[in-house]
Automatic annotation (TrEMBL):
<dbReference type="GO" id="GO:0016020">
    <property type="term" value="C:membrane"/>
</dbReference>
<feature type="transmembrane region" description="Helical">
    <location>
        <begin position="234"/>
        <end position="257"/>
    </location>
</feature>
<protein>
    <submittedName>
        <fullName>Oligopeptide transporter, OPT family</fullName>
    </submittedName>
</protein>
<dbReference type="InterPro" id="IPR004814">
    <property type="entry name" value="Oligopep_transpt"/>
</dbReference>
<dbReference type="Pfam" id="PF03169">
    <property type="entry name" value="OPT"/>
</dbReference>
<feature type="transmembrane region" description="Helical">
    <location>
        <begin position="384"/>
        <end position="409"/>
    </location>
</feature>
<feature type="transmembrane region" description="Helical">
    <location>
        <begin position="115"/>
        <end position="136"/>
    </location>
</feature>
<keyword id="KW-0813">Transport</keyword>
<feature type="transmembrane region" description="Helical">
    <location>
        <begin position="28"/>
        <end position="47"/>
    </location>
</feature>
<feature type="transmembrane region" description="Helical">
    <location>
        <begin position="442"/>
        <end position="460"/>
    </location>
</feature>
<feature type="transmembrane region" description="Helical">
    <location>
        <begin position="415"/>
        <end position="435"/>
    </location>
</feature>
<feature type="transmembrane region" description="Helical">
    <location>
        <begin position="53"/>
        <end position="71"/>
    </location>
</feature>
<dbReference type="GO" id="GO:0035673">
    <property type="term" value="F:oligopeptide transmembrane transporter activity"/>
</dbReference>
<keyword id="KW-0472">Membrane</keyword>
<dbReference type="InterPro" id="IPR004813">
    <property type="entry name" value="OPT"/>
</dbReference>
<feature type="transmembrane region" description="Helical">
    <location>
        <begin position="480"/>
        <end position="500"/>
    </location>
</feature>
<feature type="transmembrane region" description="Helical">
    <location>
        <begin position="657"/>
        <end position="676"/>
    </location>
</feature>
């Protein structure tokens, strides 16, 4: 069987001999615009929920509607739009999952000083460039030679969207319906406050059998959309972790642990100044020695550390399970470098950027990291070691990321596991050369952060190159577009993080200087990365709680459940995972109905998924816009005048107001279900 013939046998939609407009100014500008939009939305969503959804298909849908209709773009120009635009989402995910960790490093490490615009921009841009750079020599090996072996599901789906759009397929309408619905819902919720933000049911701390149990949900369009996209299985595992934490562990600890003990733990963790100071997480009252919200106090004091241990263990388990893939990927990448050097480019569809660019680009990256003052490190030697570690780990995990997403898709890519492994390896190197203590924590986070960004971008880059291979794109133009997309996206990602991190007036009154890390933007992965680094270099982890989480993850894995999803659910508030589960449950009902009727619809391109994509984009973008308004006192005032929550609570009572919000959320779910099961099927 001739296994390496796909390159000769496969015929792209646009043949190598055809000359079609491709790398044009309008395609780059449109792609950059979409990269900015989805980059900002991803920052918001990842900070809130610790989750992201792929932007590749939404950008492809926008390309065939806006680009083709208003700018008369060709299919190859639409491919460049999609390629440039999708970089924003992947880089934003890598940034948000790691770099907020600067805020949570040990006091005295100066980590907080690096969480500013220029360090974030530089690390995001360099990490994104690294992910694309390392994929240049791997394209032929993974995308071309293994075309029949590695399906790259999102890349193949995007190619189908672009080809269907060229033939007149109708994808955009449903996505725009979802976006418009989400915008209207979010305006009613965030501006007018007609819809309650987080309806809740909480038992009293004095309840004898079930104290401080909490059921609540942040009923937003983006969470419902995410739940529908990830499906009932993953959404169910996510909410299971939250159910255990908020309806199991918190009531148990509320029964056993005195409130003074919990307050002391919060002081140790920095969530409360001292026992004589009111406020902090859970609203501590120093006079009565009680919390106004004991469930939140326990969550901050104990559950987050248990969740961090579970996420760490889940990441390691995921990594261990992919070791065979890692080894084979590494061997293939070494072989592909030799092959790339020998290949004589003769056709447009085989024209990659030069391998020399990879070599000199890697050297330039190390040099830049050594000389830029925004990179932590006391000397050039410190920074050179960081740069070398970034390139070494980068090549390894870019290869791993590309092969994994080729099999299971970008959404299931275990980026967190790779980042944890990078942090472990980096900290062990630091320890071996005597670099222990607080001052080296930011340096370790830089290595982990850049590898996370590079691996995330490499996964998205692989999908884009697969799309290009199918439609007949010129590889070097795609690679250049990816570099442009990485830099443009890094600009807006830094701006968005800076805006979202600005505390509101209410936060400032409580002494909070950073909104990231609060209940508004928990940044779960960033907190985890900082916790791991501190534990490895400074030995200040509460291991008793972390180990509970470790064995929770092991237990779930032994039960055949994906431990990482469960662990993330245990770490996040139930208010996040419960509305996500609602979206997943709707997807499950749609699947059951379609199965009974014998209907088969593509999970990525079905009407429900497209409408949900619109819900995610619309809700997240409105969240960014609202956060922008509230970050500046001059605009917060006029927006606040539109708030009718006080009128509604006086008219309906607090319970009635929350019930009204729940009814709106149910209506949104019914609309999503009806869209998914009615109308013309989106087939390709």
């Amino acid at each position: 069987m001739a296994e390496i013939k796909p390159e000769k046998e496969f015929k792209p939609y646009i043949s190598a001999g055809e000359r079609v407009a491709e790398f044009t100014v309008k395609s780059i500008l449109l792609g950059a615009l979409f990269g900015v939009i989805f980059g900002a939305a991803t920052v918001y969503l990842a900070l809130k929920a610790g989750l992201t959804v792929s932007a590749s298909i939404p950008v492809a849908v926008l390309a065939i509607s806006i680009g083709r209709k208003f700018f008369k773009t060709t299919i190859l120009e639409n491919n460049i739009i999609q390629t440039t635009g999708s970089a924003g989402e992947s880089i934003a995910a890598g940034v948000v999952f790691t770099l907020p960790g600067f805020l949570f490093l040990s006091a005295g490490s100066n980590g907080e000083g690096f969480f500013s615009y220029w360090p974030i921009f530089i690390l995001a841009a360099l990490g994104g460039i690294l992910g694309t750079l390392m994929m240049v020599p791997l394209r032929r090996s993974l995308i071309v030679d293994e075309h029949g072996t590695l399906p790259y599901p999102e890349g193949t789906a995007c190619a189908s969207v672009l080809i269907a759009g060229e033939k007149g397929g109708d994808f955009a309408k449903t996505a725009y319906m979802g976006l418009g619905f989400a915008f209207l819902y979010a305006i009613l919720q965030k501006i007018f406050h007609l819809i309650a933000e987080t309806p809740a049911w909480v038992t009293s701390q004095t309840n004898r059998f079930f104290p401080s149990a909490t059921v609540n949900g942040e009923i937003t369009p983006e969470y419902m959309g995410v739940g529908y996209i990830i499906g009932p299985r993953i959404a169910g595992v996510l909410v299971a972790g939250g159910v255990l934490a908020w309806l199991g562990l918190i009531p148990l600890l509320a029964s056993l642990v005195p409130q003074d003990t919990t307050a002391l733990q919060l002081v140790k963790l920095g969530y409360l100044k001292d026992l004589a100071t009111a406020g902090g997480s859970g609203d501590w009252n120093p006079v009565t020695h009680t919390f106004g919200d004991y469930a939140t106090a326990i969550y901050r004091a104990y559950i987050r550390q248990i969740g961090a241990g579970a996420v760490a263990a889940g990441g390691f388990i995921t990594l261990i399970k992919t070791i065979p893939t890692i080894i084979s990927s590494f061997k293939s990448s070494l072989g592909s470098i030799k092959t790339t050097g020998e290949v004589q480019v003769t056709k447009r569809t085989e024209d990659d950027l030069s391998f020399k660019l990879v070599i000199f680009g890697s050297i330039a990256l190390v040099v830049l990291m050594a000389v830029l003052p925004q990179i932590p490190g006391d000397s050039v030697v410190n920074k050179l070691l960081i740069g070398v570690l970034v390139v070494v780990f980068g090549f390894f995990f870019v290869t791993v990321s590309s092969r994994i997403v080729g099999i299971i898709g970008s959404s299931s890519n275990p980026i967190s596991g790779m980042t944890i492994a990078t942090l472990m390896g980096t900290c062990l190197v630091f320890i071996s050369v005597g670099w222990t203590g607080k001052v080296f924590e930011p340096m370790a986070l830089v290595v982990g952060g850049m590898i996370c960004i590079a691996a995330a971008n490499a996964g998205a880059t692989s999908q884009d190159l697969k799309t290009g291979y199918i439609v007949g794109a010129t590889p070097k133009y795609q690679q250049i577009a990816l570099f442009i997309g990485a830099i443009v996206s890094a600009v807006i990602i830094g701006v968005t993080l800076s805006i979202l991190d600005r505390p509101t007036a209410a936060m400032q009154a409580q002494g909070i200087t950073h909104a990231i890390g609060t209940d508004a933007y928990p940044a779960p992965q960033g907190t985890l990365m900082a916790t791991l680094i501190k534990g490895l270099l400074s030995f200040n982890l509460d291991w008793q709680f972390v180990l509970v989480g470790v064995f929770l993850a092991i237990t779930m894995e032994l039960c055949g459940v994906k431990s990482l999803s469960f662990a993330v659910g245990a770490y996040l508030p139930l208010s996040t995972t419960l509305p996500i589960f609602a979206g997943g449950a709707i997807k499950g009902l749609v699947d059951i109905r379609n199965k009974k009727k014998g209907i088969h619809e593509d999970d990525e391109l079905g009407r429900g998924s497209l409408f949900s994509t619109g819900l995610v984009a619309g809700g997240a973008l409105m969240g960014v816009i609202y956060a922008f308004f509230m970050a500046f006192e001059s605009t917060a005032g006029p927006v606040g005048k539109l708030n009718i929550e006080h009128f509604l609570t006086n008219s309906l009572g607090e319970g009635g107001y929350q019930l009204l919000g729940f009814i709106f959320f149910v209506i949104m779910g019914l609309v999503l279900y009806r869209v998914a099961v009615t109308g013309k099927k989106t087939e390709i």
